[in-house]
Amino acid sequence: MTHRPLDEAARTGRPHPAEPAWRGTPVPEQVDPAVLGALLQRHGWQRRGGAAGRYGRWTPPGPHGGRTSLLVPESRDFPDSDDLIGEALDALSRSGSPSARDVLIGLAVPSDEIHWWRDVPSGPVDTAPWTVEDRLRTAARQMLLAGALAVRARAGYHGARHRGPAAASLDDVLIGGAPGGRRLTALVPVATGRPLSVRLHQALYAAREAVDYRRATGGMDAFDTAVEAGVSHELTEALVALVRGSEGARIALEWAPSTGVPEGCATRMEPVEFSPGDLPALREAGARYLRQEPSVPVRITGAVVRLRRSGPRGEGTVRLKVIAGAEVPHVRMTLDEESYRIAGHAHLVGLPVRVDGRLESRGGFRRLVAVSGVAPVQVDEAERDRLMKSLQETAEITTFFEEVCGGD
After folding, report:
1. Cα(93)–Cα(102) distance, rounded to whole angstroms?
2. Is 296-406 assigned to CATH 2.40.50.590?
3. What is the pTM of this model?
């Protein structure tokens, strides 16, 4: 059973904007003028006067920004507020500016914004090789996944634990890049992703402090305490991927203006910066997390999906599809002859088995050692039929029957 490298994306990021979350131009009556103004300012629009206390005139970023302007009311205290908001939203929807699209998405899907920058040399006309943007997207996804894992558990090394649910929690994240491949933005919907934003914010600052402590004192103690803030092997690997091959990198987070600042977090945060000089400390911390994470005692219930041994008798290797007892999809274990026979019979009659053991961190928490108490678990007929059909749909069933037919 192979282990997917951390720098290999499990799936590509959802395009920006995402169809399921995008519902077109927001309705003027549902737009808070203060939120619209905050989003315009966040995305580089400039306020250039307007009637004080009534409305502001905003122009888009860039050298040609003066050709377009929006009148945005400061509140709904005036009769023409809805008309002005409607005209502003219509102008934004017709604008070809990426910043206009970002403002509309921020209104339609209230989101925290996570920004990444990589300082890399630019090519002709502010271009960059496609590999530059690919590395940035890969590192950003690794970082989001590390944050999602930390939401579910604090651990120096997560491995395969919680990986499926953590990856699924990123499905609603919207991704938008910038020309040149040096900047990337993720919009994390507040409704589903606020815990991810908060955890990643805390983890990045803790990682920065731990790196500074390591470089100043030579000690790694700060990395041990940083685990509680969400720092892990996965996060340090993501930071290494982000910084490697660049002159430096920054990560910044901005809270959704429509929902305010989470408890315990700063209203405005400076970007967290990492440089190539931080790479040795980050790599050392990642290896330390990988080495020190202890094995976990578990009692697992699972369906036998593969059995293999070198001869008709003796011990053999069994693979289980985990049903309960561990936050991993599959585990492997080596069983003695009697336990192997029990697992084989349970498989043939469509019953799961229950086993006790220790889930090893080595290999990503995919191997069970010190196994004992292998026994079939009784289930009702409906569940048994469902389990049998599920197993028969996999190609791995062929491996089992080939062994049975050639054995004793």
Report:
1. 10
2. yes
3. 0.78
